[in-house]
Amino acid sequence: MLHKLLEDKKLILASNSPRRKQFLTDLGLSFEVKPSNADESYPENLIHSQITDYIAKAKADFFIDLAENEIVITSDTLVWNNGIILGKPENKEQAFQIIKSLSNKTHEVISSVCLKSKHKTHLFNAITFVTFSELTEEEIWYYIENYKPFDKAGAYGIQEWIGLIGVKEIKGSYTNVVGLPMEKLYHELIEFLQ
Questions:
Q1: pTM
Q2: Is 65 a known active-site residue?
Q3: pLDDT digits over 99-150, tens only?
Q4: What Cα–Cα distance (Å) separates residue 49 from each residue in 26, 76, 109, 159, 161?
């Protein structure tokens, strides 16, 4: 089991995301938070999961002096809609346009995770299909004004009000949409440590 394999290890989460921190806490793991200051730009020719793979690995590569017992977890999540990346909105108007583009459609949430120790690196990703029902302009504005989703890719948090009233269907990992594919991470970590 994971807890046994981690007994003499020091786990590092390279993210300031409160949601990712909460997931690891809920899993009962002890960890330290050390955000990666890696450059998150990527080559223009990359698409889809190639982008999150590239950035998650760049975040892991930032950690060059890991101790024998240290394992770092890095991650990157993006929302992919009709061949376009929907990043974090810069203002209310942009948030409105992003959410409106998701209304009554299915989009993909892609997360890549990189596990790194002193001697090896392992990269994997997860893709979840999220379908929104038709959202009214009033509902979209209510969400933006009350939940201010400016720190979230795709301008929404599925765990918030809009997820409760707007998400019609999910195919794949729910926790992936929140920011970290936990079931996959759990099993990949066990394999990584053996």
A1: 0.93
A2: no
A3: 999 999 999 999 999 999 999 999 999 999 999 999 999 999 999 999 999 9
A4: 27, 10, 10, 23, 28
